[in-house]
Amino acid sequence: MTLPNGLTPEAARDIAARAYELDRKHVFHSWSAQKSLHPMVITAAQGCYVWDGDGNRLLDFSSQMVNTNIGHQHPKVVAAIQEQAATLCTVGPAYVNDARSEAARLIAERTPGDLDRIFFTNGGADAVEHAVRMARLHTGRYKVLATYRSYHGGTETAVNLTGDPRRWPNDHGNAGVVHFFGPFLYRTQFHATTEAEETERALRHLEQTIALEGPSTIAAVILESVPGTAGIMVPPPGYLAGVRALCDKYGIVFIADEVMAGFGRTGKWFAIDHFDVVPDLLTFAKGVNSGYVPLGGVAIAPHIAATFDDRAYPGGLTYSGHPLATAAAVATINAMTDERIVENAADMGERVIGPGLRELADRHPSVGEVRGLGVFWAVELVRDRATREPLAPYGGTSPAMTETVAAAKAAGLLLFVNYNRVHVVPPCTIGEGEFKEGLAILDQALTLADGHTV
């Protein structure tokens, strides 16, 4: 028996032990207290599965960081990276190269409306940084409005735009960011009882925020089309169209953050396509090449791009449009198209994942709500369905969540977890049998969560 990378389990364990030793000695991990950290070693991956340092196979319901949309080690993308490396490993961003040009064409063909100019970055956070910079320069204004319950990245501007607690240690109140409440009917801030009420009241709140802050001071409103890490709260009908109308009314740039939700995750190329809305700027990363080589970018509407026709754009990156990354993007987008991977995500969400999770909710009192689209779902866990008290506090965890997640992992399921939620976000390539395998493990793990309910 060998792993997908050809290693025997014994050899893989030896490599894993050495890697772990060096990691704990030399690697400084993100978002973590270093002393108590015990990271999992991954020695191999294939499709929807990963293998840990002990040779155990786990079904990856996390897609790592919700980015391996076409699964692990897709042969067409691996081959494209190898071919590009043999041809041209790197080139400065001022020079034209065919991989970047073709990637830009393929992305522009799929972005909504006329977002046909592409500025490449190294990832999602710097895509957000540059989108905000473009909006500020285009409008001559500085403030940016962003929602609570959001995540936009770990760099200075992006983390200040973020609404979740990762912002707190980095927020000194001087970033020009104003937060407001987005729609979230399950935990409504507006005392709404229907989606229509939530939309109307959330839009009224946003317009009031604009009025009180001063429309002439606001450069942009940035929204995740479907918020990801913050809870996969699908916006109610009419909300994003209403935001678009408010931005038009007050001359504000509308930035759609599609870093996590884009490239097939919701069952369409971009999540905003579900709502027939075209933003002025759209940020992307992650699924554009499934994270095989770091890549992100901003898709730009003509009126924003025209600002820089005769005026230099003051921004750039050494690795903007890196040929290895963009060659991976070309191969990824073509594979997603040829293999109908976006369509698979839509079908699995509607026919298998949604019904399967809702059936789970019927059996488990710890499940307060199930919500999502495509292969982008959240299972909200609660101590009490009546009061909706979460199973872990906002910004923290709990023994109940730790126990539940550990049980799933021990049974062979790797989960994406945030506070009181389990996110079911497997690769867009997942099949019905693979999903049901994971669902059965999650079903068993949730019996532990049920033991913490009232």
What would your notes on this structure say?
With 454 residues, the protein is α/β, with parallel strands linked by helices. Helix content is 39%, strand content 17%. It has 13 helices and 16 strands. It has helices spanning 9-26, 63-66, 75-87, 98-110, 124-139, 156-161, 195-213, 239-250, 302-305, 323-338, 341-363, 399-410, 432-450; strands at 42-46, 49-52, 57-60, 117-121, 143-147, 177-180, 218-224, 253-257, 281-284, 296-300, 367-373, 376-384, 389-390, 413-414, 416-418, 421-424. The strands form 3 sheets. The protein has a 7-stranded mixed beta sheet with strand order 4-10-9-8-7-5-6, with helices on both faces. Helix 8 links the parallel strand 7 and strand 8 (253-257). Helix 3 (75-87) packs antiparallel against helix 10 (323-338), helix 4 crosses helix 10 (323-338) and helix 12 (399-410) packs antiparallel against helix 13 (432-450). 49% of the residues are buried. The mean pLDDT is 97.
Structure annotation, total helices? 13
**So what's the overall shape?**
globular
User: Strand fraction band?
Assistant: 15-25%
Cα distance spanning the termini: 47 Å
Radius of gyration, in Å, reads 22 Å
Tell me the strand order in the biggest sheet.
Answer: 4-10-9-8-7-5-6
Low-confidence regions? none
Number of strands: 16
SSE succession: HEEEHHHEHEHEHEHEEEHHHEEEHEEEH
Could you estimate the helical fraction of the residues in percent? 25-40%
Q: Give the biggest beta sheet.
A: 7 strands, mixed
